[in-house]
Amino acid sequence: MQVNGKNYQTIWVHADNNQIIQVIDQRKLPFEFEIIDLKTPVDAFVAIQNMTVRGAPLIGVTGAYGIYLGLIDANSESWKTSLFKNATYLKSARPTAVNLAILIDEIVAVLAECFSHESACALALEEATRLKRREIDWSESIGEYGCELIEAISISKNGEPVNILTHCNAGWLACIDWGTATAPIYKAFLYGIPVHVWVDETRPRNQGARLTAWELSHEGVPHTVIPDNAGGHLMQHGLVDLCIVGSDRTTSTGDVANKIGTYLKALAAYDNNIPFYVALPSSTIDFMMMDGVREIPIEQRDGEEVSHMEGELDNGLITKVRIVNPGSAVANYGFDVTPARYVTGLITERGICGANPADIFKLFPERGGREKKKG
Known about the structure:
Blueprint: E1 2-3, E2 6-7, E3 11-13, E4 21-24, E5 35-38, H1 41-49, H2 56-72, H3 79-91, H4 99-111, H5 117-156, E6 162-166, H6 172-175, H7 183-190, E7 195-200, H8 207-219, E8 223-226, H9 231-236, E9 242-245, E10 249-251, E11 256-259, H10 262-271, E12 276-279, E13 285-286, H11 292-295, H12 304-307, E14 308-312, E15 318-322, E16 335-338, E17 345-348, E18 351-353, H13 357-363
Parallel strand pairs: 6-7, 6-9, 7-8, 9-12, 10-13, 12-17
Antiparallel strand pairs: 1-2, 3-4, 4-5, 10-11, 11-16, 14-15, 17-18
Helix pairs in contact: 1-2, 2-3, 2-4, 2-5, 3-4, 4-5, 5-7
């Protein structure tokens, strides 16, 4: 995607040194555009944990590259021990997004079959890059399928702009390229379908106001940033045609964990009969989990994300200020779970399906194929 007219992805191998992985530091956006180097599995862990990189698909790929970086410096005699140790370590960086564990398990399963340290290092780089390419391809496919929904609404509105509400950032920054929730929007925009995006600010880290708005601005997509609590009002007054959000983990029964506040948007959409779609690759589906509300681990982050806010002063200085009464306790739940009954459908790399086990396993029969019931 575009940054000042130049194509970027969010993670790549250094052009001159394949033992360095480079990423965009998303903590600095939109005020500064900075690229940092990852040289060790510790670098990858920290980047995931402190949200230098964020978004379920991206942290999964970063974890895979972290496995590669760990193998580079591993002892040639005990590299397999290091492999499994780093896998456990990297998977602990963030608990809610299932992509991290899925991609790490996938690459480790392949590498465990290697007979030499040298071959494992070469294969690790190849596999991590393959997983990256797969996520990009899946995001683009999600864009094509989701674009059909936008096009249908555009036709019904006689070419008037389609108003789409999204929450948090499920764009190319979160997904290496294209994004999940934004991919249908980018495809529609490229195909000349008039669109307008309502961008939730997404407190407390403001990923909508800081990241989604930044992305859309560089792509030239019309958009408006709104307070998180304005979505319901817009829906009541016919100003939202479609909601599309991403996911950090979706169960086999269609329950969706996404950035805190998603559940409230789904309730408002349901009350106003507005389609509420979740865009996600299959690497975000936890096929073994059935009850999202009870089973999905919800990350609780540092309270300072709530009590303080970072921004740019008129003089260009980037600073952090307290916005909460110093004597008040704060809670910072990173995600909530939207029950499947409020989800109109899931937009995946294989097509759109209902948020229920029958439709999910029909689309992904190799993952089990049996209907499950919530316990």
